[in-house]
Write a structure and sequence with these properties.
Layout (H helix, E strand, L loop, with lengths): L15 H16 L13 H9 L5 E12 L2 E5 L7 E5 L2 E12 L2 E12 L2 E7 L4 E14 L4 E18 L2 E16 L2 E3 L2 E18 L2 E13 L5 E3 L4 E2 L3 E12 L2 E3 L2 E3 L2 E8 L3 E6 L5
């Protein structure tokens, strides 16, 4: 977890005519990759994959999962010295899923591996010394490692992050809401909304890593999906209302880098919901 470096007194924004070309270029870059090469792993990806399995199963779920998420992005307009900033984001996720279906007295297990990325654009808007608002939009495309296209998802939303320090303790709070419009093969799903709440509490550990102060702690993330309706080609309805994640986290101040890739947050968590459970490893606090 890193402190919020975007919170400061800032001058007036630049003229709109100087901003529009940058914004337009960012949006076009985010929308350009339309080939079904990769996509950002949705928090609901296990459910979408279960719906693609088909068959007259009486029960279905993801008995285990592993998700690895690596944040990649580039800052086009640094918010330091400005009232807002602009980033292009390109998070990459790898998913490993064991999907289980029950047909009569038989349990069938299939293993699916996915690669995903969601090019997008994110604004950074400091609203106080402690909080930053992050309006964003992204386009996710995905495929399995066998080369099968799994679908696309268009998402727009707002994240907010607050950072607090009290002696050796450091806390990050995240809030989020987004609207997603999925286009998935063999799964019927309406556009849906996601609400998010997260917290990460760390303490200074008293030692250094690569000349940086080490911190460790725990985190939790809750996601709600009001009105979500997922239906497969066999008219099975999947009822998913929430996804929870609990785990441990590690960070340094200043943040670690690996081959010039920043690692602001290293976490291992257990993710579970109405139909699935498993391990998630991530390298940023997702707010």
């Amino acid at each position: 977890m890193t402190s919020n470096r975007y919170n400061r007194d800032v001058p007036a924004p630049p003229p709109l005519r100087t901003v529009l070309p940058v914004v337009a270029a960012a949006i076009l870059t985010a929308l350009w990759p339309v080939a079904p090469a990769t996509a950002q792993a949705s928090e609901l990806e296990p459910v979408f994959l279960i719906g693609r399995q088909g068959g007259a199963a009486t029960d279905a779920g993801a008995s285990s999962l592993q998700v690895y998420r690596v944040p990649i992005g580039v800052t086009l307009l640094d918010p330091q010295g400005r009232p807002w900033g602009l980033r292009l984001t390109f998070p990459v996720s790898l998913g490993f899923y064991d999907l289980q279906a029950t047909t009569g007295l038989t349990d069938l297990v299939s293993r699916v591996q996915t690669v995903s990325v969601a090019p997008g654009v994110e604004f950074l808007v400091p609203v106080s010394r402690l909080w930053v608002l992050k309006p964003y939009a992204e386009v996710g495309l995905g495929m399995t490692t066998s080369g099968e296209f799994t679908g696309a998802q268009y998402t727009a939303g707002l994240r907010a992050r607050g950072d607090y320090t009290n002696g050796p303790y450091h806390m990050a709070v995240g809030l989020g809401a987004h609207y997603a419009s999925p286009r998935l093969s063999r799964v019927n799903i309406d556009d849906y909304t996601t609400l998010e709440l997260a917290g990460n509490v760390q303490r200074e550990l008293g030692f250094r890593v690569a000349g940086r102060d080490a911190r460790g702690g725990v985190y939790g993330i809750a996601r709600w999906f009001p009105g979500l309706r997922v239906e497969d080609a066999y008219d099975r309805l999947f009822d998913v209302k929430h996804v929870w994640e609990l785990g441990v986290s590690f960070s340094t101040a200043p943040e670690l880098t690996l081959w010039k890739l920043p690692l602001p947050w290293i976490a291992v968590g257990y993710r579970f919901g109405d139909m699935f459970n498993g391990i998630r490893i991530s390298f940023d606090f997702p707010f």
